[in-house]
Amino acid sequence: MNNHKKGNNAIPLITITLLFFMWGFITCMNDILIPYLKELFQLTFFKSMLVQFAFFGAYFIGSLIYFIISYYNGDPVNKVGYKKGIIFGIILSALGCVLFLPAATYGVYGLFLSALFVLGLGFTVLQITANAYVSLLGPEDTASSRLNLTQAFNSFGTTIAPILGGHLIFELFKDPNGGFSAAATRIPYLIFAGILMLVALLIWRVKLPNFAQDAENQPKGLGVLQFPQLKRGILSIFCYVGGEVAVGSFMISFLGLQDIAGLQEGEAKKYLAIYWGGAMIGRFVGAISLSHSMSQARKAAYMLVTALAVFVVIYLLVGMPFEQISFFLIFIALNFVGFLVGRSAPARTLVIFSLINMFLLASAIINKGEIAMFSIVGIGIFNSIMFSNIYTLAIAKLGTYTSQGSSLLVMAILGGAIMPVIQGALADEIGVQHALIVPLICYAVILNFGFYCMKRFKNLEMTSVKSGH
User: Fold this and answer.
1) What gap in Å lies between CA 198 and CA 364, rounded to an integer?
2) In whole angstroms, what is the distance from residue 186 CA to residue 320 CA?
3) What is the pTM of this model?
4) In the 8-state DSSP scheme, what is residue 179?
5) If exposure means fewest CB atoms within 10 Å of the residue's CB, which of 171, 254, 397, 401 is most exposed?
């Protein structure tokens, strides 16, 4: 791979971070579409979860195609370069947004699913290229820190989406005669398509470091599967995305239950924003925690100030009285303690956070009222570092197999298609609350991966901790 100076990475990282923001925003719009389309087409929970099945199923299909190409002909991204791969992914995503025009015009559920599938294919290319690209923009031992930073802005997008997206669909572009109309989705997604094309233009104009390799050095075949951390990481990504998406997809329905909170969609979307906002707080704090360029004391101070500052941003965004959102300060404190105990080690932090989320899900299943509501909303802040930590641990030491390994990890995002559908089928049978057993099992798998990596990368973990002084 071509080398580049460390100082040249700031502009590329900022540019890619902007992409992560839009990517997160549009992905989280699915959580608004699900209850909207459920009412519009009078769907069961199972059928409404086909939104996630179409979107995240595209990740599997797209990644499978990518892997087959790399198996026979070598890694495509390594041949054409990450920049061209990223731009192609953005254009494909914009096309998916444009397809909402005929879907909304004809009001056919299948057309909405088709548009979401194409949108998911575009994001598949971005997952393969952008995540690996960020991990390559600097030393391997700080890859988790960089990816947490970009993922934090991805979470900023997912935090704004329920508020702004919910306003666009439920209020601004709603049917003037009342009720639900497919046309309410038309203009918002055309706007998203336009913004994506502007981001593609920006990335095309910005000079990005080139990581393309010579064709004769391309890895082929199934050699990438020789790495046990990758195989376990694939299962963990499957469960992480499945668990996160399942919780987010059912958030509005869960909070609408009379024995939980009995909230209408307009009010429940604010708590959905807090759920995703928690991930944003955790990722910003995680980027600092997993950095090795400052003392532990300064790091702790920056983490605390950052967490509180982002909390204030979320508070201002959701427009909720302070007494209703103040409960989240408890989760911020617990998250802060979790990072301190994790001591800048990706695997150790993963273990701590997955344990906490298992406890919160158990609480949401067992309890009623505010305790159950607070428990499920609090899961987001502990989801924060999971994707980036699992991802970087899984591709650690893969060398020239990095992009190919990344395609397999992106294929595992299929969990976001499968787990919500399973949870939807269970919800139709045993109720929304008890169906939360599905994400609880997902976090148990992640816990196992964390313990495995603590042993496998013991020396790397110790290096990370020492270099934090």
Assistant:
1) 42
2) 29
3) 0.78
4) S
5) 171
